[in-house]
């Protein structure tokens, strides 16, 4: 994520594009792209990996570093997980109060609110 911070750097632009592509790929793997439906076993594996690695917390902690489209993808990912992996995500969130505090604090930042 440090490469994303330096906005004037070529490597920063490259890192930003890579982050955008990867987040879009995760969203498509979970939700599909309208033409193809995601495979349930792949969705389950990806969702569990997202929770096991604290990737949701990482995404929320770094939300302000991502471009607008990436922030939208993060929102789609979180909403999908809440709707489809409700018990696991609820357990994750209740065990990780930093996650909710960070989401609420995000409204103070005009760039991401």
UniProtKB/TrEMBL annotation:
GO function terms (MF aspect): protein serine/threonine kinase activator activity
Protein origin, superkingdom: Eukaryota
Pfam families assigned: Mo25
Biological processes per GO annotation: intracellular signal transduction
InterPro entries: ARM-like, ARM-type_fold, Mo25
Similarity comment: Belongs to the Mo25 family.
Protein name: Calcium-binding protein 39-like protein
Species of the source: Lygus hesperus
